Amino acid sequence: MYNEKVVEHFNNPRNVGELPDADAIGENGSFKCGDTMKIYLKVKDGIIEDVRFQTYGCGAAIASSSMLTEIIKGKTIDEALQVSNQDVADELGGLPPLKLHCSNLAADALHDAIANYKKKQGSVVKD
Fold first, then answer.
1. Which of 63, 102, 105, 109 is catalytic?
2. Distance (Å, whole) CA 96 – CA 94
């Protein structure tokens, strides 16, 4: 059902846990499947210096969260804002159609974190 990359990120997720001094936190969840995600960002000079996640959900949700953190670490806030759910799924080498919503949850939690960060900075995120 899952390819080797998805299994690897599920079995050995990167950047797991809270980030106590996070500059922003984003959350997202699905009532449909029960998966929930929280993304923590540490930003310095507009660049994502550190990122962590906490995810309660299936293997695809955990793998998507892990991959998302790998994709955005070192990017500017504006570059990270461009990361889509499809980018996450593509970097994982694809997800089964019934699990594509997991990459949506990860990207949406990221976008929520960025919106919270920008709000703190006195800016707004445009859709």
1. 102
2. 7
